[in-house]
Structure prediction request, 253 residues.
Amino acid sequence: MTIFDPAEGVPPNPAHDDIYLVEFPRSGITWLSFILGNIELRLAGAGEFVTYYNHHRHVVDVHQLRGGGRINRRLGRTFIKSHSTYNPDYYFVVYLVRNPIDVMVSYYNFMRREQDYRESFDHFVRHPLFGVGKWKEHVNSWLYVKDEPQRLHLLRYEDLVRDAQRVISGLYMNLGVALEEVLLRDALERSSLESMKQSEEHYRRSNPRVRAAYIGKERKIPRSDLLTDDVMAFIIGETVEELRAFYPDLLPG
Prediction:
């Protein structure tokens, strides 16, 4: 089984103004990458849009650079995806956080599908390498480090789901760009769940090696089937401080 190593994370040709999109795995970074890639392509006047096949061309995944590959900075801003824990070499950072309950459910389904993980969900959330303790470590490494010069913009996945237009407009205001409403609406439409699923399905039809859908709920164990009272209590108990800070509504009354 391949174990995720969060220690990697700097491209071979870093630039000071690179903007790193950072998350603990399964927090929504692919969706965010589609949105930002489509915005940047529109701002550049390019006749392209983001697809499942090409999205790492427009928003590079630093963990998937092959053979020491260098980043080609084609657009006005260079966004780079990363799962790294705190990295002082990242100057501009957009940190995407998602509540640990949904992250664990999504990550477990991902590991079953992609890494052939066959242990129970209870075993998974307690695992020292990718369980909820790792989520806690990742979040704390970014949000509580004392690094005043580093620029960090925090996004909650749940806020992105609730009002993507407001959240993305707020991010671009920090970047110094007032997005036109028509441009933003078009980018969000091209990055909708349905558009992403259609793009992935088109890609899957041309690649016989793809085993299962990455986007959506196909062949995934539902949240309700995994979250027993004991597992829920364990996740909440391990992350009570983080939940109090970012998700107080998830704490028991």
In short: Residues 1-7 have pLDDT under 50 and may be disordered. The chain has twelve helices and five strands. The two ends are 39 Å apart (CA to CA).
